[in-house]
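Worked example 2:
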Amino acid sequence: MEIMETLRLVIDPELEINIMDLGLVYAVYVKENQIEIEMTLSSSHCPMGSSIVGGVQNCLEQHYPDYKTTVNLVWEPAWSHKNISEEGKRLLGI
């Protein structure tokens, strides 16, 4: 399964960059028929947080319908601009 590539379809609605290039996804675990995503947001007060988490859930359920998806938000380690990939930096112009 190429779950990490599939997650590139989930776009942060404010920055218009996918969550993988933003470095929001910390881990993906697949066990039997379950997918567990460990991710963060750019801040705990992110106004689009529920939209992003819902986007992850919907995206994975569409692409992997035989798997139950769980998204766990974590705040440690805290997200920083250092998490952004080189492609993400290019897209953001930084």
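The mean pLDDT is 93. The chain has three helices and five strands.
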